Amino acid sequence: MTLPSEHSLSDLLELPHTAAASSLSELQKLIDDERARCGSVISIPVAQLSEAQADDVRVRFTGRKSPLQDWLRSLRNFPAEERKEAGAKINQLKAFLEVEVEKFVLECRAAAEKAKLEREKVDLSLPLPELAMGSRHPVSVAAQQLLEPLRRLGFTVIDGPELEREFYNFEALNIPAEHPAREMQDTFFVASQWVLRTHTSSVQAHAMLERGVPLRVACAGFTYRNELDLTHVPTFRQIECLVVDKGITLAHMRSTLDAFFAEVFGRPVKLRLRSSYFPFTEPSAEIDVQCQQCFGEGCRSCKHTGWLEMGGCGLVNVRVLESCGIDSKVYSGFAFGMGVDRIAMSKFGIADLRSLYEGDVLMSRHLALR
Ligand code: PHE
């Protein structure tokens, strides 16, 4: 039997008009009709019914409102001597319906599942959908991109610990305990003599003490300071360069900075060195880069100054050279250190530092692809 339309199934599931019988022969007729009706339903090819329709079939034949229940209730209308036989007939029908209908419903389910799998069958020859993958953080990308030009300029890229001895972070860099310069960097003290490095300059001390001269090293990595406001976050990244050799002067530093920024931005950019103070360099300067959004006109990104402060630089203080075992009468050096976030913001045209830490994957992805 096939099912011509939705209509026929609902016809078959209609409840019989007679809800009760009062004699064995009447009951037999109802039972035969019900059996026949059930037979018609379960001979419908299972693939033609949805799971919901299969459930309707179950409810109709074995549910609480099925005729079976009415008939069991109407047993009391039977003469006492027929009651037992009538009850037995109804129970027989009940057992039959339960087994057959359950079998049918399970088959319907299996057919529906099979059809679903068939519909969802994977065609291995189809092109792959674009995967919504994350990407590296723009600042990570920037840090790597910044090291590239330095490699080309002949710098060796090195690493240093983020959990640092106070000695490398401070003393070796001419910042003794109690020196007011310690106030410049709000430090996370981890344990006695141990800090989270407040700058990558600590790697300078490692390089001088562990590698000796001549030196031309660069590093990039996380640095930590106990500060949090609109323009400062406690974890940020710096990039640091150190050159120590015979006859190194400010001219070498300036030309290295010019070459570095030209490569970073893909064109020559204007730099400004502003006299400043760092305990580990003498003389010292702040490095300003002309704002690459407005080219000096003044805009939101540069707070209308036309310049962006990127970091500090200077000639390595002779005290630092000496405390790292380098003869300052023979050798001199320069160093610079900068915030990678700042350079990334300028390079990628990001106006708000906070957007780097909001975890917006789409934005990261967009920037990383640029
Ligand atoms: N370490 C300094 C800072 O974090 C930057 C700097 C590095 C200055 C190297 C001079 C030389 O502010």
The radius of gyration computed from the alpha-carbon positions, rounded to a whole number of angstroms, is 42 Å
Which descriptor suits the 3D outline?
rod-shaped
The share of residues in extended strands comes to 15-25%
Mean pLDDT, to the nearest integer, reads 89
How many domains would you count in the coordinates? 2
Distance between the termini: 64 Å
Total strands: the figure is 10
Q: Determine the fraction of residues in helical runs and give it as a percent range.
A: 40-55%
Largest sheet: 7 strands, mixed
**What is the CATH fold-level name of the largest domain?**
BirA Bifunctional Protein, domain 2
Q: Strand-and-helix sequence, N→C?
A: HHHHHHEEHEEHEEHEEEHEHH
User: From the coordinates shown, what is the CATH architecture of the largest domain?
Assistant: 2-Layer Sandwich
Which parts are unreliable, with pLDDT below 50 for 5 consecutive residues or more?
A: none
Instruction: Please identify the top-level CATH class of the largest domain.
Output: Alpha Beta
- Which oligomeric form is depicted? single chain
Q: Which ions and ligands are bound to the chains?
A: phenylalanine
Strand order of the largest sheet: 1-5-6-10-9-8-7
